[in-house]
Each structure stands twice: as C-alpha cells, then as structure tokens.
Amino acid sequence: MSSTTDKIKGLANEAVGNVKQAAGKATGNDKLVAEGKAQELKGEAQKAVGDVKDGAKSVADTITGRK
Questions:
Q1: Rounded Cα–Cα distance for residues 21 and 67 (Å)
Q2: Lowest CB count within 10 Å: 8, 16, 23, 67, which one?
Q3: What is the pTM of this model?
Q4: How would you class 20 by CB atoms within 10 Å of its CB: exposed for 0-12, middle for 13-18, buried for 19 or more?
C-alpha cells in the first residue's frame, strides 16, 4: 500500500471507530464502545505507517538526489 492509501484507510477507521464509540455510549453498549476504541486505534496505527513511509521515501530521495 502507498502512504496515501494507509493514511486514508487510517482516517476512515478512526472515523468509524469514533461513531461506534458514540453509538455505544448513547445506547449503553460497552462492547460497541470497546470495538470503536479498537478501530480508532487501528486507524491511528495505519496513519502512522503512512507517515513512516513518507519519511522513508523522503530520506531515499535525498540520498539519491531526487526531489
């Protein structure tokens, strides 16, 4: 996956996770709250992977003289 794809999927997972948490809190469903938090954390990790890929590409471009 590209860094952009990772970041987009991460944002989507964070958003869905937040919705699940809100729905779980509104209905008193602790399981849904936990699922939402897990999905939110998954999204944060996916975004971090995208950021690392961007950083690695930047370093490689600097070493090879590309822009």
A1: 42
A2: 67
A3: 0.78
A4: buried
Is residue 22 very low, low, confident or very high in pLDDT (cuts 50, 70, 90)?
A: very high
The string of pLDDT tens digits covering residues 31-56 is 999 999 999 999 999 999 999 998 88
The encoded tokens of residue 38 equal 């897990």
Token pair belonging to 62: 């600097």
Nearest Cα to 9, choosing from 43, 45, 48? 43
Q: Could you give the count of Cα atoms lying within 13 Å of 1 in the half-sphere of its Cβ?
A: 14
Burial 27-49 (b: 16+ CB within 10 A, else e): eeeeebbebbeebbebbeebbeb
